[in-house]
């Protein structure tokens, strides 16, 4: 299990040094993500992808549940309307599956273009030119990594931990 830690860094050189320190501390680059203002120089940094910077995963999960529920309701209505012409359980299951697929797809399209609610609190700092570091560290190393960054990067600001790190992104 990993825990996500947030840090705000003032500029690109600080962000680059921080990334190098994390790599030397044996944190893999796939667990280090940076966000900055659109158009900012991200040369040498591992930029956050759509999974870290949008509500894609949360939207897909909601779409799955809502689509399956609506599909099940439509399946019950269809089975009731068809009567003995079809196996009612098969109709309900097929409609629930179709609803789940369509709900997941449509919601994930919307969620991929929506900024993450978890990162909303950093919008002002990012807009002012700061770099947001999101690093996912093993729970057993959280204190060690926080101490390392506090010691080596006094210019950085610790912004907290994510209480529930998403398993996917």
Give a description of the structure.
The chain has 2 domains: 2-54 and 116-161, Alpha-Beta Plaits, CATH 3.30.70; 56-112, no CATH class. 50% of the residues lie in helices and 15% in strands. The protein has helices at residues 12-24, 50-53, 56-82, 88-112, 123-127, 142-152; strands spanning 2-9, 32-35, 131-138, 157-161. The chain has a 4-stranded antiparallel β-sheet with strand order 2-3-1-4. The two termini are 13 Å apart. The model has no long low-confidence stretch (mean pLDDT 85).
Write the layout of secondary structure elements.
Elements: E1 2-9, H1 12-24, E2 32-35, H2 50-53, H3 56-82, H4 88-112, H5 123-127, E3 131-138, H6 142-152, E4 157-161
Antiparallel strand pairs: 1-3, 1-4, 2-3
Helix pairs in contact: 3-4
Distinctive features:
elongated; alpha+beta; 50% helix; 169 residues; four-stranded antiparallel β-sheet; Alpha-Beta Plaits; 2 domains
Number of helices: 6
The SSE order reads: EHEHHHHEHE
How many strand segments?
4
Overall average pLDDT:
85
Please bin the fraction of helical residues: 40-55%
- What is the overall silhouette? elongated
User: Distance N terminus to C terminus?
Assistant: 13 Å
Proportion of residues in β-strands: 5-15%
Number of structural units classed as domains = 2
Low-confidence stretches: none
Radius of gyration: 22 Å
Widest β-sheet, arrangement of strands: 2-3-1-4
Q: Give the second-level CATH assignment, the architecture of the largest domain.
A: 2-Layer Sandwich
Largest sheet: 4 strands, antiparallel
CATH class of the largest domain: Alpha Beta
Query: Per CATH, what is the topology of the largest domain?
Result: Alpha-Beta Plaits
Structural class: alpha+beta
Protein name: DUF1269 domain-containing protein
Organism: Roseateles toxinivorans
Keywords: Membrane, Transmembrane, Transmembrane helix
Transmembrane segments: 63-83, 89-111
